[in-house]
Amino acid sequence: MYSRTKRIHLARRVFNSMQVKDIATWTSLLNGFVVSGEIKSAWKLFEEMSHRNAISWTVMIVGCVRGKEPVRALELFKRMRKEGDDSPTSITIVAVLSGCADIGALDFGMSIHGYVNKVADLAMDVGVNNALIDIQPCGSWVTLMKRQENTLSALVVICKDVGIFIQDGLRRLALSDVPFRVMFKKD
């Protein structure tokens, strides 16, 4: 409530007066700082936390991406995987992939893609799959086709690129059968 009304310092005062603070109260205040745009205060609180869960890690990762610090978000994700007890959620993965797209970190994004393919719940998540499509630079579908086991996912990437080709004035390439010949070509 306090963070939505831009009175996060009142929330901090309430938090400081609490006798018992659990992970939910810590994460709630953390989210309040992020929502209020007070990333420095969020970082300070995050480092004070004795225990973090997937939600608290995700709040900071999302805060970094939204705060135009995608490199810091990717570093924090690596730290989460190393130190954290909980697995990343679909929201965590979408935020990290967004950070990858922001800085063109295709290799890191593809490593996340490999992780996603190993986790059944993430592999079927629409938001995660859309984020995976967004990290693909225009024209990278040839490389992606070789990596894709799921023809439908590859077709979606091709359709995205066809739309980009049309926007960029490359209508002939977009409307040709080249993307589809590559997709169905046997090695």
UniProtKB/TrEMBL annotation:
PPR repeats (start-end): 22-56
Any one biological process term the GO annotation gives: RNA modification
Pfam families on file: PPR, PPR_2
Gene Ontology MF: a single term: RNA binding
Keywords, in A-Z order: Repeat
Species this protein is from: Anisodus acutangulus
Name of the protein in question: Pentatricopeptide repeat-containing protein
PROSITE patterns: PPR (PS51375)
InterPro entries named in the record: PPR_At4g14850-like_plant, PPR_rpt, TPR-like_helical_dom_sf
